[in-house]
Amino acid sequence: MKFVLVGLNHHTAPIAVRERFAFSKHYLPEALNLFVDGQNICEGMILSTCNRVELLGVTPYEGTQGIACVKNFLKAIHQKCDSYDEHLYYYTDQDVVRHVFRVASSLDSMIIGEPQILGQVKDAYATAQSLNKTGTLINKLMHKAFSVAKRVRTETKIGANAISVSYAAVELARRIFTSLEGQTVMLVGAGEMAELAATHLMSAGASHIVVASRSFDKAVQLATKFNGSAVIFDRFRERLPEADILIFATAAPHFVVRVADVAAAMERRRHRPMFIIDISVPRNVDPSINDLEQVFVYDVDDLQAVVESNLRERKQEAERASRIVEEEVAAFVAEWRSMAAAPFIAALNAHLVEMAQAEYERHRKRIDRLGGMSPEVERYVREVIITSILRKFAHPLIENIREAAAQGEQSRLCETFGLEVRVGAQQQVRLARSA
C-alpha cells in the first residue's frame, strides 16, 4: 500500500483558487465517502483550511497511478479542476510522510510556528476516523505526526517569539514588568490593532482595562467586552496614574499626551514603571516622554523591529525543527516499510507449513508400519518439532524479506521467493510457485 497526497496552499495558489477547492464542514462527510471508495483509495482524510486544501490517501497503486486516483476524484467534484492544475502539488510515499510532519509542526504555515494548524489537522483526522475512513497506515502516520509536532514544540523555540505587532506589545510589556498579573491597561482610542493588543495583554494576565474613545458609546462597548470601565476621552489624563500599560491608537494628527501629563501621573504613581505603546500614525505620544524615569515608550517602528528580530529567530528554530522532522521521517519510513513485509512473511510461513504437513502425511503410513506413535507423541511432532524446524529454516529467509521491504524492494521479494502480489482494495500475497 502506498501513500499519496494532492493539495494546494498559500504558496501555490491565491485565495480565489483555494476557495474554489475548499470543503465545507457540511459537505466534508459526503466528500470523504466519495474519496475513500475502498478500491482506488483504501484510507483517506481531507484537510481544508483557509490556507490549504489537501487530500491524503492510501492506495494500492504506484506513483502517478495513485496520484491519478486522487485527481479523478477532484475532477468529479470540481468540473474545472484541469484549469487549476498548475496550482496543485503531488507527493507519494516518503515525500507524503515528510510533508504531513512539516504541516503538523507548522513548518509549512504562512506564519511559521503558529499553533492553529495542529488543531486543524487533528480535527480533519478525527472527522475521517469518525467516518471509518482511516486504517492502519493513516492512523500510524497521524499519531506519529502529532508526536513529531510535540517534539518540535518541546525541543525548539519555534513558537516562542512574537511575530505580530500585537503580540510584540505583550512581549515588551513582559520585559518591563516581572509579571502582567494585576496590571491595569488603558486603551486610548478603539482601533482594531489597539483592541487586539489589549486582548493579548488581558489574556497574559492584566486584570483591568480602562477605555477612552472620542465615541463614548464605543468606549463603553469595548470596556464591557473586557469587563472594564469607560472614560470620556477629554478626561483620560485624569486616569493616567492608574495605568501600568497605555495603548494609544487614535486618528488625531498630533500628540494627545505630553511630557507634563505623564510626569504628573508618575508623581502620583510614586514612579512605579509605566509602559506606553503608541501604534498611531501620526504618533499620539510625544517621544520626549521616553526621557522620564521609569517610563518606557514604544512606537510602531519599535514593535516592528521586535517582530523582525523574532522572525529571524523563528527561521533559525525552523532549521532545527526541520532536522527533527527528517530524523522522524527516516524512522517512520523504516517502520512503515517493515510493515510491508508482513503479508510476504505470512505467505511464506503458510506455504512452508503446508509443505511440511504434506510431507508428514506422505510418511505417515511408513511410521504406522514401524509401530506408529501415540496421540501425544504425534501432537508433539506436529506442534513442536515440525514448527521448530520450520522456524529455523525460515529465519534467514524472513530476515531477507524484511531487509528487502525496508529498502522498498517488493519486486525483489516476489522474484526471490516466488511471491505474487494481487493488487486490490486489500493487498494480498500468495506463492506463485514453490519457494
UniProtKB/TrEMBL annotation:
<feature type="binding site">
    <location>
        <begin position="49"/>
        <end position="52"/>
    </location>
    <ligand>
        <name>substrate</name>
    </ligand>
</feature>
<keyword id="KW-0521">NADP</keyword>
<dbReference type="InterPro" id="IPR036291">
    <property type="entry name" value="NAD(P)-bd_dom_sf"/>
</dbReference>
<dbReference type="GO" id="GO:0008883">
    <property type="term" value="F:glutamyl-tRNA reductase activity"/>
</dbReference>
<comment type="subunit">
    <text>Homodimer.</text>
</comment>
<comment type="similarity">
    <text>Belongs to the glutamyl-tRNA reductase family.</text>
</comment>
<keyword id="KW-0627">Porphyrin biosynthesis</keyword>
<feature type="active site" description="Nucleophile">
    <location>
        <position position="50"/>
    </location>
</feature>
<dbReference type="InterPro" id="IPR000343">
    <property type="entry name" value="4pyrrol_synth_GluRdtase"/>
</dbReference>
<dbReference type="InterPro" id="IPR036343">
    <property type="entry name" value="GluRdtase_N_sf"/>
</dbReference>
<comment type="function">
    <text>Catalyzes the NADPH-dependent reduction of glutamyl-tRNA(Glu) to glutamate 1-semialdehyde (GSA).</text>
</comment>
<dbReference type="Pfam" id="PF00745">
    <property type="entry name" value="GlutR_dimer"/>
</dbReference>
<dbReference type="InterPro" id="IPR018214">
    <property type="entry name" value="GluRdtase_CS"/>
</dbReference>
<dbReference type="InterPro" id="IPR015896">
    <property type="entry name" value="4pyrrol_synth_GluRdtase_dimer"/>
</dbReference>
<comment type="pathway">
    <text>Porphyrin-containing compound metabolism; protoporphyrin-IX biosynthesis; 5-aminolevulinate from L-glutamyl-tRNA(Glu): step 1/2.</text>
</comment>
<feature type="domain" description="Quinate/shikimate 5-dehydrogenase/glutamyl-tRNA reductase">
    <location>
        <begin position="171"/>
        <end position="306"/>
    </location>
</feature>
<keyword id="KW-0560">Oxidoreductase</keyword>
<dbReference type="InterPro" id="IPR015895">
    <property type="entry name" value="4pyrrol_synth_GluRdtase_N"/>
</dbReference>
<feature type="binding site">
    <location>
        <position position="120"/>
    </location>
    <ligand>
        <name>substrate</name>
    </ligand>
</feature>
<dbReference type="Pfam" id="PF05201">
    <property type="entry name" value="GlutR_N"/>
</dbReference>
<feature type="site" description="Important for activity">
    <location>
        <position position="99"/>
    </location>
</feature>
<feature type="domain" description="Tetrapyrrole biosynthesis glutamyl-tRNA reductase dimerisation">
    <location>
        <begin position="321"/>
        <end position="415"/>
    </location>
</feature>
<feature type="domain" description="Glutamyl-tRNA reductase N-terminal">
    <location>
        <begin position="6"/>
        <end position="156"/>
    </location>
</feature>
<protein>
    <recommendedName>
        <fullName>Glutamyl-tRNA reductase</fullName>
        <ecNumber>1.2.1.70</ecNumber>
    </recommendedName>
</protein>
<feature type="binding site">
    <location>
        <begin position="114"/>
        <end position="116"/>
    </location>
    <ligand>
        <name>substrate</name>
    </ligand>
</feature>
<dbReference type="Pfam" id="PF01488">
    <property type="entry name" value="Shikimate_DH"/>
</dbReference>
<feature type="binding site">
    <location>
        <begin position="189"/>
        <end position="194"/>
    </location>
    <ligand>
        <name>NADP(+)</name>
    </ligand>
</feature>
<dbReference type="InterPro" id="IPR006151">
    <property type="entry name" value="Shikm_DH/Glu-tRNA_Rdtase"/>
</dbReference>
<dbReference type="InterPro" id="IPR036453">
    <property type="entry name" value="GluRdtase_dimer_dom_sf"/>
</dbReference>
<feature type="binding site">
    <location>
        <position position="109"/>
    </location>
    <ligand>
        <name>substrate</name>
    </ligand>
</feature>
